[in-house]
Amino acid sequence: MTHSVPPIAQSNTLMIGDFSARTLIQRFGSPLYVMDEALIRSKMRLYKTAFSHPDFKTTITYAGKAFLTKAMVQITHQEGLSLDVVSLGELMTALSVNFPAERLVLHGNNKSIEELQAAIDANVGLLVLDNPDEFQRLIRLKPQHRIPVLLRVNPGIEAHTHDYIKTATPDSKFGMSLGDPATFDFLRELADHPLIDLQGLHCHIGSQIQSIDAYLETVNVLLDTLLSLSKEGLNLHTLNLGGGFGARYVDSDPILDLPQLLNQLAEAIFAGCRQRQLTLKRVILEPGRSIVAEAGTTLYTVGSIKTTITGKTYVMVDGSMADHLRTALYQAKYTALAAEKLDEPHDQLVTIAGKACESGDILIHQAKLPRLVEGDLIAVKSTGAYHYSMASNYNRLLKPAVVLVNGSTARVIVKRETIEDLLRNDEVIA
Ligand SMILES: Cc1ncc(COP(=O)(O)O)c(C=O)c1O
Known about the structure:
The structure is a single chain. This protein is α/β, with parallel strands linked by helices. It has two domains: about 1-30 and about 295-425, Beta Barrel (Lyase, Ornithine Decarboxylase, Chain A, domain 1); about 35-285, Alpha-Beta Barrel (TIM Barrel). About 30% of the residues lie in helices and about 25% in strands. The chain is built from twelve helices and 21 strands. Pyridoxal-5'-phosphate (PLP) binds near residues 66, 242 and 243.
C-alpha cells in the first residue's frame, strides 16, 4: 500500500518525511513503527565510503538482527552491502527476495542441522563457526563443496556497555576464547580439513560502543593472533570485527563522528599489519543498530493517565514491552516527544507505561513531556533497531505495522498483525 500527501509542516507537529504523526496514525493505525528510508540509505552509504582502504578489501555487512524484513533486505541489496543472518528465518527472508547468497554471512552460536543445510544449499558467502560441536554437525552433512569459514573468537576485551550486550568477555556464550589453547588446536583442525576453507577470524565485542578504543584493542589482539598463527604456517587473510557502533537514544549520548572513527579504524588495521608484516585481504564490519536505530520512530496513542498516591504519574500507551522490549531487557533509555505539542515545554516528569500485565512494562522511566490528555500522540525516537525484530505476542498483543517513509511516500512493509494471524497456528484439543 502506498500513500502520498502534500507536506503539512506545522511547528508543533512531528513530521516524518512529509507526513505528520497524526496522518500516519490515521492511515496505518496505532501503535506504529515508522522507518525513515532516506536515513537508512544514507547511513549505509556513509559506512561504505568511510570504511575503505587501498591495501585491503572492505565489506560492510548489515547485521539483520537489528531490523529485518523483505524490504530491508532489498534496501541492503540495492545499497551494495552484504547481510549477516543468524537463523533460518533471517536466511530465508534474504533468499525470498533473491539477495545474492555470496553476500550472506551466517552466524549463530548453536546453528541447527536445518540452518547449516540451508546455508550449504544456498552456498552462502561465509559461515561463522562458533564451536567444535557445530563444526561436527556441519561435517556430518557432507557438503559437496568447501565451506568458506571464519571462526568466532573471543578476545577477552571489555567494551564499556551493558552486560547483556557485552559479548567478548572470557565467559561469554559466543565464540572461543583466545586465552584457551583448545581454540588454536581447533583452528589447526579447521585449516587442515578438506571440506573447510578457513579464511579468518570473527569477533563482536559488544553493542552501543561509543569510542574507538575497544576496537583498536581488538585489532591489536586479532593481528597478534594472526601473526602467531602465521609463524606456524597458518596464514589467515580475513578479519571480521563485528558491529556494535553506538546510536543516539537520548541527548546525553555522545555524537559519534562515524566517518572519522571508521577512517581511523581502517588506518589502524593497515598500520598494525605493516608493523607485523602481515597481509590482510579483507576486513568486514557488521553494523546493525548504527544503521537503523535513529531511522525508527514508534508512534503511540495515549490512553489512561494515572497519578499514584506517592505522586508518580503514569502515562499509559496502546503499546507495551511486546513492541518495545529494550527498556525492560537492558534498562535502555529513550526520548519521547508529544508529537502534536512539540512547541509546548516538555517539563513534566512522567513514566510511560505499556498495557502488558507486568510491572516492568515500562517504555521510558523518566520521560519529560508536556501535559497530556487521552488521544494525544507520543513519538518514541530511535526505535529502528531491536524493536520490531524483538517484538513478541506477549499477552496475545498484536504486533504493530511497519511503515517505510521516504519524502512524500509511505509504504507498509510489514502489515499490522490481525487476530486471524494470531490464532492461525493454534490447534484445539477437543
Ligand atoms: C555477530 C554480530 N555482529 C553484528 C552485530 C550487530 O551489532 P550492533 O547492532 O550493535 O551494531 C551483533 C549484535 O548482536 C552480533 O552479534
